[in-house]
Amino acid sequence: MKAFHSDLEILLKNQKPASEPMSLDIQIDNYEKLNQNRVNEQTMNRLIETFLTELKQVLTSRAEIFLIGSLFIDVLDQKHVMLVLPFLYPETLETLWLSNAYKNHDDRTLEMNVIVQIEHWKNIEEFYVEGLVVNASVRNFAHISRLKTKIMTVTAGDLIFLKELRYSFYQTYKTTKYSCNKHSIHKF
Question: Best label site of 65, 68, 97, 127, fewest CB within 10 Å?
Answer without folding.
Answer: 65
